[in-house]
Amino acid sequence: MTNQYDPYEQMLSALDMAAENLGLAMNEYTTLRHTERELSVSIPTEMDDGRTEVFTGYRIQHSSLRGPCKGGIRFHPNVDINEVRALAAWMTWKCAVVNIPYGGAKGAIQVDPAKLSSQELGRLTRRYTAAILPLLGPEKDIPAPDIGTDARVMGWIMDTYSTFMGYSVPGVVTGKPIEIGGSLGRKEATGRGVVIVTDEIAHRMGIPMQKAKIAVQGFGNVGGAAAKIFYDKGYTVIAVSDVNTALYCENGLNIEEITGYSKQNHTLKGYAAKGVSEIENEQLLTLDVDILVPAAIENQITGKVAENIRAKVIVEGANGPTTAQADDILSKKKIIIVPDILANAGGVVVSYFEWVQNLQAIFWDVHEINSLLKKIMLRSFEDVYSLTREKKVSMRVAAYMVALDRVVKAKQIRGMFP
Ligand code: GLU
After folding, report:
1. Ligand 1 lined by 70 (C-beta under 6 Å)
2. pLDDT in tens, 92-114
3. Which of the listed residues 295, 321, 338 is the one where a domain comes to its end?
4. Based on the domain organization, do 45 and 159 belong to the same domain?
5. Do 211 and 245 sit in the same domain of this protein?
């Protein structure tokens, strides 16, 4: 989002820190400080009243060193190109940290999808897909959902690409509806991954989850799913929020009921139950909890917020929720952060399963998917955690080190063209 914290600069500072800890000279990773390819497009769209509105969109590929570029598409009114660059780079590191054979990319359209009719949204998505078509393909670049997009939007992308090709290409996009090649378990995969790593970090730190208090910021695809899975496991979620409000209950919220309310009303605002009060969004971040899960957007935990954070552990469901300044403050306060590129990787892991299923034209059941997801998340957690211990660095630096090492090795093996 347009604001004082440039997410690309924040990404670079974490990257440089990891490179330093790996003992890499600038020349060995300088390429990775730049995006590989950037496409900016104008998207003329016919509105329902007959007017033509021209939207701005992007698709940015950060790296294809380890495989096809992979990453979501965001529809948000404040999205800017530097944010998309950072999000693309984070996808490279995320795919490398969980060791799946992808590079990183991200796309976006500057639009508030809530203000468009379904027809307008469909026309916008299809025209955007046509505009970025030369970049896309199951071997080249595979989009997925992100903030403001969903399975329906992915279905339009799949259809538009397939129409141009002249045959059906389900593997060009992930997070599709099940009926056209989507994967079981994909929708809640990011939230499920967040819960897997939360359980693991709590276990390592000796925090009993059955007694822990949890706050979740964001009630979308990531926060909503994570809160629900926490609740189903019998954990106590004492606060949740969306863009409109935050709900708090000292003894734990009924997430099942709140999920139903949110589905029906498209907001948490107005939800009422015994013992539940509405609090300010920022208050949620500084509640007296064991686990804090920021699962909304970037730069929510600023230096100022970090000073007041009381959680023992932060599990980053969102991409880039913590500023570099906040990171320093939290580390001084000995608050453990499970970083975004590890914590929220469950989504792209199941996207990878979806793509593999599409390429092989065979489908897996949800148990196979969830158990393989768990295996990959735990393996990646261990890779990062053991490096944290060994090198005495934060989990963020360790995660970047694991990722950068893998990407740099791929670069060394491939060599530079020409
Ligand atoms: N948008 C999600 C992310 O930031 C998922 C990306 C994907 O599945 O390709 O990780």
Report:
1. yes
2. 999 999 999 999 999 999 999 99
3. 338
4. yes
5. yes
